[in-house]
Specification:
Helices cover about 65% and strands about 15% of the residues. With about 120 residues, the protein is an alpha+beta fold. The radius of gyration is 32 Å and the shape is rod-shaped.
Length: about 120
């Protein structure tokens, strides 16, 4: 049996090693065959390293996509909240900062603000 251990490398980063076992009879494999088998083993290792790197990159971009989606969702909610505050302030003929302070202090009923934004108590439209 011939054994090759070839590095799994991608762009200078060592990711691991690939062990390849080739069944052969003793002293029947010429040196040229062993060299070509080593090249095939390294090609397999290079393909595996590329797959590992792609998996890692995909996981990073999925995490980033989730973070960006969360940021976008919170931004939309913040924009809706600001619109409700502004509409409430206009209808009550109050300065916006006074309405915001009243919300923070719990003086303004948030059900009224939800009506201004057109959303229900659970935040759905």
């Amino acid at each position: 049996m011939t054994t090759f251990a070839v590095p799994l490398r991608r762009r200078g980063n060592l990711l691991g090693a690939l062990n390849v076992f080739v069944p052969t009879l003793p002293d029947t494999t010429p040196a040229d065959d062993a060299t070509s088998e080593l090249h095939v083993a390294q090609a397999l290792a290079d393909a595996a390293a590329l797959g590992l790197q792609n998996r890692s990159t995909y996981a990073q971009y999925r995490a980033l996509s989730g973070q960006l989606q969360g940021a976008l969702s919170s931004r939309v909610r913040a924009d809706e909240a600001f619109m409700a505050l502004r509409q409430y302030a206009r209808r009550q003929r109050l300065p916006l900062d006074q309405v915001a302070s009243a919300v923070v202090e719990g003086v303004v009923d948030d059900a009224e603000l939800r009506r201004e934004s057109g959303t229900s108590a659970d935040g759905t439209a």
